[in-house]
Amino acid sequence: MHSDRHLVNIALIGFMGAGKSSVGHLVAEQLRFDYLDTDDVIQSRAGRTITEIFATDGEPAFRKMESDLVKELAGRTRTVISTGGGLPVKPENLACLKTHALVVCLWASPEKIWERVRHQTHRPLLHDSDPQKKIRDLLAVREPFYKQADVLVNTDIRSVREVAQQVVHQYRLESSDRR
Ligand code: S3P
Fold first, then answer.
1. Which of 14, 50, 158, 172 has the greatest number of beta carbons closer than 10 A?
2. Where are the beta strands (DSSP E) in the chain?
3. How much is the average pLDDT of 110-122?
4. Quick one: pLDDT at residue 6?
5. Which CB contacts under 8 angstroms, 24+ apart, belong to 120-123?
6. What is the pTM of this model?
7. Cβ distance 4 to 72 under 8 Å?
8. Within 10 Å of residue 160's Cβ, how many Cβ atoms?
9. More confident call, 104 vs 178
């Protein structure tokens, strides 16, 4: 199984507020991997925030920046890649990540997501008159894509540390399987 894959990285996918950055930093520390966040790279290259990019260039332009970056990431090794919540919705993005990374989805219920993001303001997709409905609707559309991950970890019932431990454990299992 997966004999054509060379799992030298870990990609974290999942909805906004699923804990990708906090978990990703811990996993990187434990494995002594680099940590990279696709939103951070896009923002620093553009010299603008995600909100500004959405406002001036529009969401399709942002999605194009994400896809271009995903292609570049195929050259990385020993990196924990934390991805923007909408990135796996393009099948080619997920397919590309899977060639070099163990893809782990951090899953969270709409209620937990709301609890975690309600006081944050940096996500343009949640600048909505009914953000809770927006979360439910977007999550329903994205669920089939998130569930194509190699590993699914439910974050509702685990601390950041426990989730990170789970990701490290899965990576060790999967990468040694393929040695
Ligand atoms: C988005 C999630 C954000 C960011 C952008 C769009 C999405 O990243 O990429 O605001 O479509 O779900 P996080 O998942 O890191 O918040």
1. 14
2. 9-13, 34-37, 79-82, 101-107, 151-154
3. 93
4. 87
5. 120/17, 122/49, 122/50, 122/51, 123/16, 123/50, 123/51
6. 0.96
7. no
8. 15
9. 104
Query: Please, what is the average pLDDT of the chain?
Result: 95
Structure tokens given for 77: 């090794």
* CA 93 – CA 145 distance, rounded (Å): 11
Between CA 61 and CA 65 the distance in angstroms is 6
For a pocket test of ligand 1, which of 43, 44, 125, 143 has the largest count of ligand atoms closer than 8 A to its C-beta?
A: 125
Contact criterion met (CB below 8 Å) for 140 and 146: no
Give the residue from 84, 156, 161, 96 showing the smallest Cα distance to 125: 84
Beta-strand ranges (E) seen in 74-175 are 79-82, 101-107, 151-154
Task: Choose the residue to mutate in 82, 123, 136, 139 for probing ligand 1, maximizing ligand atoms within 8 Å of C-beta.
Answer: 123
pLDDT at 5: 84
Which tokens hold the place of 121? 């303001």
Q: Inform me whether the pLDDT recorded for 95 exceeds 90.
A: yes
Residue nearest atom 8 of ligand 1, based on CA coordinates: 84
For ligand 1, whether the C-beta of 125 sits within 6 Å is: yes
